[in-house]
Amino acid sequence: MKRIMLIGSLLFVIALGVWAIVQPASAQDGDDEDEELIKERLSHYVIRPVEDIVDTDLLVTNFASDGTASLSIETSVPVACTIVYGETEEFGTLSLDQDMAGGTHSVHNPLLNGLKPETTYYFRVQGFDDDGVLYISDVMTFTTPAFEEEATTNLASPDLGATVTGFSSAFGDATIDERWGAGMAFDDNPNTQWSSAGDGDEAWIEVELAQKARIHSVEFWSRAMNDGSSITLEFTIITEDGTVYGPFELPDADEAYEFEVEIEAQTLRFDLVNTTGGNTGVVNIAVYGEFLDE
């Protein structure tokens, strides 16, 4: 049995302990005492199959060309959820839920990073409830696609020369290209998000296109927190000449919604004017149209 280093966090202690138990036995001299210590500590905890609280298939989806993917899970009991994954059954990587609030909840979206194209990965889902019960799945597999990048038609994408020129704030003071940074709002990736630092209805983000464009539609996908906060209900668009378009109403934060517009502009400021408060932000904004001849 591999030597296990005890970590301060209870979550990691139990998760690694269970991991040790399900690994093939290969005890070496001096490891028996560690094995007995792990088993003794685990005897104080209840371990149940994850199927007790999940009634849908556990599927890794939303593969993106940057090597990310996600696994959406809804549990009947609030838990703190993690996924361990890797190219072998020894895993090697642990992914935490993306919810900023921490603690236990029922809707989970752990983000997987560093995935290689056309590669098979082993993974296991596990979570703790408020009573310390550990729910754990079987070891499963998923295979990543080829990650072929498609040319974007989103005029607000940095790939087409657009630049973020301002934003109200970013959670954790993230820079534009960091997690929760403003650049995540225009990267065409459903696994990343720009989050403000509690701006609520005062959140805004501005992008300058490579050149003036005739815009015929805009897509907007609001971010959301599991507690119902951070959802944008209405947003407006302000161009460089001060013209205001909208407000545009969003039914929910489940997906991107497209709005037909007639705008000629180079700079677009998106104001989140009606929200459920908190760390409001955007999963993705896309702008469609044609650049005008200069």
Walkthrough of the structure:
- The protein has two helices and 16 strands.
- It has helices at 10-22, 32-42, and strands at 47-49, 69-70, 73-86, 93-96, 105-108, 111-112, 120-128, 134-136, 140-143, 163-167, 194-195, 204-222, 232-239, 244-249, 257-275, 281-291.
- The strands form three sheets. Strands 1, 3, 4, 5, 7, 8 and 9 form a seven-stranded mixed beta sheet that branches. Strands 10, 11, 12, 13, 14, 15 and 16 form a seven-stranded antiparallel beta sheet that branches.
- Helix 1 (10-22) crosses helix 2.
- The protein is elongated.
> How many discrete domains?
2
Helix/strand class: mainly beta
Mean pLDDT: 87
Oligomer: single chain
Q: Report the biggest beta sheet as strand number plus sense, adding barrel if it closes.
A: 7 strands, mixed
What is Rg? 22 Å
Helix content: under 10%
Shape: elongated
How many distinct helices?
Answer: 2
- The succession of helices and strands, N to C, reads HHEEEEEEEEEEEEEEEE
* Low-pLDDT regions: 1-27
Tell me the fraction of residues in β-strands, as a range: 35-45%
Predict the CATH topology of the largest domain. Jelly Rolls
Distance between the termini: 69 Å
User: CATH superfamily of the largest domain, please?
Assistant: Galactose-binding domain-like
Going by CATH, the architecture of the largest domain would be Sandwich
